[in-house]
Specification:
By secondary structure, the protein is of the alpha+beta class. The chain has 9 helices and 20 strands. The strands form 4 sheets. Strands 6-7-8-3-9-10 form a 6-stranded mixed β-sheet, with helices on both faces. Strands 13-12-11-14-20 form a 5-stranded antiparallel β-sheet.
């Protein structure tokens, strides 16, 4: 296995600047996920590492080799594609063995590697079938198996689960995680699904418009987002945002918007003093908004009207209106709330976020 280093990586297509100054170090045996909306540059970055896209500027190092000018076959990587890319006329065995045959591996070695990979993935009984006889999940396992037999330094995954149904995606996520721990491989994984990114990645790289927005462990991105984009992209349901003005009353700071007035927690007061009288963005995650009890402090509570109730079994999501602001609260399943009910809600003051209105950076 090997580390992967990207230095000042850029990709331009005529007037379109798809990847901008990407600097990233992926450690040996690390599972790193590139995540972001469509068109953010994550797949282009992966394809440059694979050698399937030319680099406009910058450098890619795999192990101790600069690979900018090496063809894909000489980079010692294996790629798993979104559409599986299996040969329809070949059996599963031959699909998995094909790359090794092209490299003139001995027959016995090919057989051993294919059998080992099939055993790891639980597809031994499928080796004689053709791809058309397989389900989507089975085809994906074959595509992963074809990569495993190569014993590459780096695995590259390009949205490999996006063609599977929801239940199978969850199952395959668990299997990929298990597989990575067993093989101890270096892996780069691209997805637009932030749940996939959070559950799979040792570290997650959030991208937007070709730029890296933040790199960190999943819970770090969730708890300490660097900017408003990361805060809104990571987490489901998304973080609530309210445009507020910072005011001062009796020496204390308050975040105020029409129909909403909340105290600024003391821990954040020193940071927000410079923003007094200015408009900034207040953020709070749905799980940090709940129905208030008689013991909850008034300064962190507000009145709201229920607009939508979404019972999900283990929890209930309430879409509420507070003045002109719409927020989502994730509450206990025992909460009995109906549309048009008026509730007093409270926030967790230790979990609030503030973002600069112009730069959108976390304050």
């Amino acid at each position: 296995m090997a580390q992967v280093l990207m230095k000042d990586l850029n990709k331009k297509y005529d007037e379109v600047h798809a990847v901008k100054d990407v600097n990233l170090q992926i450690r040996d045996k690390e599972f790193v996920v590139l995540v972001g909306p469509s068109g953010c540059g994550k797949t282009t970055t992966l394809r440059m590492v694979a050698g399937l896209e030319e680099i406009t500027a910058g450098e890619i190092v795999i192990g101790d080799r600069i690979v900018n000018d090496l063809p894909p076959k000489d980079r010692d990587i294996a790629m798993v594609f979104q559409n599986y890319a299996l040969y329809p006329h070949m059996t599963v065995y031959d699909n998995m063995a094909f790359g090794l045959k092209m490299r003139k591996f001995p027959k016995a070695e090919i057989q051993k590697r294919v059998q080992d990979a099939a055993e790891i993935l639980g597809i031994q009984e499928l080796l004689k079938r053709k791809p058309r006889q397989l389900s989507g999940g089975q085809r994906q396992r074959v595509a992963v198996g074809r990569a495993i037999v190569r014993h590459p330094q780096v695995f590259l995954f390009d949205e490999p689960l996006s063609n599977l149904d929801a239940k199978l995606r969850v199952q395959m996520r668990v299997e990929l995680k298990r597989l990575h721990e067993r093989l101890e491989t270096t892996a780069i994984y691209v997805t637009h699904d932030q749940v996939e990114a959070m559950t799979l990645g040792d570290r997650v790289v959030v991208m937007k418009d070709g730029w890296i927005q933040q790199v960190g462990e999943p819970l770090e991105l969730y708890g300490k987002p660097a900017n408003r984009f990361v805060a809104g992209f990571i987490g489901s349901p998304a973080m609530n945002f309210v445009e507020v003005k910072i005011g001062e009353v009796n020496g204390g700071l308050w975040a105020e918007a029409p129909g909403l007035r909340l105290a600024v927690p003391p821990a954040l007061a020193s940071k927000l003093k410079a923003h007094k009288g200015q408009g900034i963005t207040f953020g709070i995650r749905p799980e940090d908004v709940r129905v208030a009890t008689s013991t909850d402090p008034e300064q962190y509570s507000f009145q709201a009207t229920v607009e939508v109730v979404e019972p999900l079994g283990a929890e209930v999501l309430l879409d509420v209106q507070a003045g002109q602001n719409t927020l989502v609260a994730r509450v206990e399943p025992t909460t009995r709330a109906k549309v048009h009910d008026k509730l007093r809600l409270t926030i967790n003051p230790e979990r609030v976020h503030f973002f600069d209105a112009k730069t959108e950076l976390a304050i």
